[in-house]
Structure formats: structure tokens, C-alpha cells
């Protein structure tokens, strides 16, 4: 017989340094699993060697104790015969289909029920706070645009693109880092010749799913259009009139990779 | 029909093994339930005339190993391990305190525990146990030998541990 197992599970705790083979023979001797000649040899050894005798006695005691431990199993076992597995799979599949349908419907309905992402509210407030600011409107000015992009890409853990709104007459003023609910957000500020300002807010922290449909949040004079794409939440805020802002929002969404089919 | 009645005859033994292996009545009953169902659904793959008991034990053992893996993922710590909730048995057999034997059994690695239960409690031959465990008979022999020796060491530690607090008491009293 070869030892096919790992050499010794917990071998260092085995106590007396008896050769494994001898112990195996004693163990198999108790179970009457040795061929005749070997069995006789072991029997002889046990009779003449107190240590082997003690080992055999200890193993036998273990066996008896274990049998005593699990002796009493008299109460009846009840086995319920449920539908065969194929039927069960069909039932499970049915439930799963219903579940999936419910989940899908819920996801369609929830935004319609006014589930505003918090990032849109935060973007709106950030606009209200920073847009009137004259001297400290941004942390990093547009003149250092490369640095701005590198810095905020690093903080948002995503390659950030700053869209150009020049065709609408808005130039980049710069950007800043802001706290969103669970992580960082970036705010980019734009300004036109008349001094009107827009902000584009981006966050990656709380975005769990894509929703590139553009939605609106209004608070007083301020309007925010927001959407989520590729696990980034975007919000464009301003007070230049809803229609004009919406046109810019749609173009921005497209430029940043959103799908116009969803609009 | 005889397949089902043969199967029923093995249920008490199957349950004894499940309880001993898991140390948890509820888990054991579920195992027996699952194993019985699987056996009935796969009755056709059983070759008449071969060892039905080994076949049933194999099915249940595979289920147990799967479920054990699942439970390990939830990280069962020692304190909440199923056998901590087991009733402590009373009494001694051949000079061994049953409570200590129970504790030692669940300290063994599962490979050692299962071979020990199959041979010592279910009284399977090494050959039958090798079918259930899907290892060569030589492995059954060596693993069982290690399990017994391991248990002897554990039981020795138990009595050693019992001796030390009493000597501490003496010191604190003086």
C-alpha cells in the first residue's frame, strides 16, 4: 500500500515519533483489513510491545466512543418528495422571468416617478454657489487646461474630456474639484461675452447605471440638464433660458459619447 | 419498486452519517433530503447489483462538500461553527469522556473526520469507503491512521488542559 495522501496532515502535532507505516498497520489491524500473514505479524507485535498495545487500545476506545456518540438516531426521517428537478427548473425559470420583468418595469418607471439623482441637485447648488463668484470662480484657470484635465482625470479616476462650447459663445473659465455624495466631482465653468455663466458638473462616485436620457431639474431661475453615460454623471447648469441650455446640453451629451437615439 | 424500498432502508444510516459529519441537525436533515431526492431522480444511473449504500453515501458526500465550500465563503468562524450548538454528550466510554471525543472529532480536518466516521461508525470496509470518498484504498488506510493518531493527540491535549487550571487555583488560594 502506498501513501497517496499528503504526507502528514498536522504531522508536527503527532506526538511520539513512530513511523507512519507502523501506525498504519496497527490501524488497519483493528479494522481487520490486513492480509493474513501481515495480520499475524502485527498481532504478535501487539502482544509483545506495550506501546503498540496501548495504541491499539486507544484506537479501539476511540471507535467505541464514536459509535456511542452517534448511536441514538431512532426518530423517523421525513423526506419530502418535491416535483422532479425538470419541473422545478421550469417553475424557477417562470419565477425568474416574472422577476426580471418586474425589475425592468421598475427601472423604467422609477425615473418617471421623480427619482432625481442627487448629483443633479449637487450640481445645481454648486452652480448657485460658484457662478456668481468673481475672483475665485475656479481653482484652476483655463490657461492651465492641460493641468486641469490631468488633475481632475486623476481624481475622478476617469479620462475627463472638457467639451468646447465655443460655438455657443461660451469660453472655458476653468474648473474645480468638489465633493459629491460618495466621492469627488469636477465642475467646469464657462462664460460668454455678456458675462453669463454655465457649469458642467461630472461625477463618477454615485453612478450605478447608464441613463443617457437627458432630464431636467429646475430651481428658480436655474436649470440643470443631466444624464449619465459610461458610468459618469453629467449635469449642465445655467440660467440662460431653458431652450438654449437644452440645445447645448444635447450637443454636449453627444460630444461626450451619449447616444442621440435616447433623447 | 425494490430500488425505493432499498433506499428507504438506508435512510437511518445516511442520516446518522450526515449528523455526525456536519454536527448540525438541520443541515444534516437537509442533506439527507437533497441526497434522497437526487438519488430518486437519478435512479436510472444506478447499476443494479452494485453497492447501493456506497452510491447513496457518495451522492450525499458530494453535496456536503459543495455546501461546505459555500459555507466557508461566508467564513464560519470557530465560535459559530455548527457543532458549537450541539448538545454536549454525557458519560464516558472506555475511559474517554464523550464530550472530549466530540470536540476532538470536529477539530479534525474534514477529510480525516469523514474517513473516520465511515469506517469506525458506519463500519464500512476500506474498499467501500474508497468508493464513497473517491480515493484509492491505500489512501483510506493512511488517512484513517492519521485521523486516529490526530485524535489521540487531541484527546491527550484535552486531559493536559484540564490538569493545568487546577494547579493555578492552588496558587491563587495561597
Automatic annotation (TrEMBL), chain A:
Keyword Membrane: yes
Alphabetized UniProt keyword annotations: Membrane, Transmembrane, Transmembrane helix
Identification of the protein by name: Anti-sigma factor
Basic and acidic residues biased stretches: 1-12
Superkingdom of the source species: Bacteria
Transmembrane segments: 89-110
Renumbered residue ranges of the record's region Disordered: 1-22
UniProtKB/TrEMBL annotation, chain B:
Listed GO biological process terms: DNA-templated transcription initiation
Keyword Transcription annotated: yes
Pfam family, one: Sigma70_r4_2
Limits of the RNA polymerase sigma factor 70 region 4 type domain: 99-151
GO MF annotation terms: DNA binding; sigma factor activity
PhyR sigma2 domain: residues covered: 8-60
Domain of life from the UniProt record: Bacteria
Keyword annotations from UniProtKB, A to Z: Sigma factor, Transcription, Transcription regulation
Family to which the UniProt record says this protein belongs: Belongs to the sigma-70 factor family. ECF subfamily.
Name of this chain's protein: RNA polymerase subunit sigma-24
Natural source organism: Caballeronia zhejiangensis
Source lineage: Bacteria, Pseudomonadati, Pseudomonadota, Betaproteobacteria, Burkholderiales
